[in-house]
Amino acid sequence: MEDVIDRLRSFPPPADTTSHEAYESHAYEFLIATREHLSRIIDSSEKAQSLLDPFLAIRPIRDSIIRMDPTCASFTIAHLYLTRLCLLAKAYKIACPVIDRTIFTIPSAADRLFIQHSQGGSENNAATPSYLFEPPMKFTYADHLQYFLYGGMVYMALKEWSKARHFLSIVISCPVVNAVSLIMVEAYKKWVLVNLLEKGMIASVPKITSPVALKTYKALARPYDALATAFISGKWERLRGEAQVGDMIWRTDNNYGLVQQVLLSFRKKAVRCLGDTFAAVTTSDVSQRALSNSMDVRETERYIVALAVQEGFSTSLIHPSKDPNTSMLRFLTDQSEPSIDLEISLEEQLQSQHQKLELLIRNIQTSDSKLELAKEYISHLRKTQKRTDAASKDAAGLSGRKREQNVDIDEDMMDELQ
């Protein structure tokens, strides 16, 4: 492990080298050696179940990814190692500078040739280090799926549900032919729970999801769909019953913690929904309507205070009478006008989204150019041209035969007239 850390820290930035070719040669050798060392570290850490070694390697791996590719737009095997080690060491925030970046490219030898031979390419090409594309990364289908699954799990640990849902959506919508990976099934199970935690509803799968994959999800993840159906029914007894029935399933799938958060989210949602109907309600009614009489007055008051402190719940708890057992929950309406800080925040968000869209457009243009130069696309064009030529010949022959038939018909008509 010490050898790998020294290698990662000794990798020089481009400004420290006099020759670009020498820098790429050094990076080429560095990638080969480091990848072999990291593979052995991952295998040994899983066998020994050690949390110390993964934690020591996290920051050097993250820093090396950013140093070799500041945009983090090209997927490397180090991305997968980083997310796995962050989960093992429970150091989730360390991975954010890498997983927050959008991945546009999965390196291959063809990409390296494209970068070398493209003249006057796009800005993204100039910023993409060509040494990332060789030696060809021996990625598998599972590596791609695992990275986004692990990234989603990192976001779940940070309770960033929207980002977690996005990563899991990538996994469950990956194209399949006849077989569906168990990684995709695992991602679907977590995706169902994350939707309940983020939106409190059952969301539709992405439109590009394969029908074969969707059928498999519905067959292998029925307990999760049943739990989601119970959640949106609004009945606590039904939801709690589904959670208890599938207790062993949640534990086996390592989703028990997420299910418990779903139960807590249901109660929070139930209390909030009371504000849509009532301006004020007694604490005993809150316990009866939203908490199914599972708490007494004191426990309900403490629960409401916790919601106000932790979740920013806009309510006030008052005691209209001298009786300590009589309290009332009043829902506050936000009548404040938009502040300057809010407008500045919205403007910054718009600028950030604008920059992301520009980057996306540049990468789409680059991908189109790569496809146009790929051997598969050229072969497809040749086959299409051959089919077009053959169809044109057939059409020309058919039109010739029709003209001959018309001449024969005209001659017959003239004979009859004579």
Structure explained in plain terms:
The protein has 418 residues and is mostly helical. The chain has three domains: 1-139, no CATH class; 141-267, no CATH class; 275-335. The protein contains 19 helices and three strands. It has a three-stranded antiparallel beta sheet with strand order 1-3-2. Helix 8 packs parallel to helix 10. It is elongated and about 95 Å long. Keywords: Cytoplasm, Nucleus, Signalosome. This is COP9 signalosome complex subunit 3. Residues 407-418 have a biased composition (Acidic residues).
Task: Provide a quick synopsis of the model.
By secondary structure, the chain is mainly α. The chain has 19 helices and three strands.
Key descriptive features of the protein:
418 residues; 3-stranded antiparallel sheet; elongated; 3% strand; mainly alpha; 3 domains; single chain
Low-confidence stretches: 45-51, 119-127
Overall tally of domains: 3
Largest sheet at a glance?
Answer: 3 strands, antiparallel
Structural class: mainly alpha
C-alpha termini separation = 105 Å
Instruction: Give the overall form.
Output: elongated
Strand order of the largest sheet: 1-3-2
Order of helices and strands: HHHHHHHHHHHHHHHEHHEEHH
E-strand count: 3
Count helical runs: 19
Q: Report helical residue fraction.
A: 55-70%
Share of β-strand residues: under 5%
Give the averaged pLDDT, no decimals: 77
> Compute the gyration radius: what is it?
31 Å
Domain PCI: 163-336
Organism: Talaromyces marneffei PM1
Protein name: COP9 signalosome complex subunit 3
InterPro entries: COP9_N, CSN3, PCI_dom
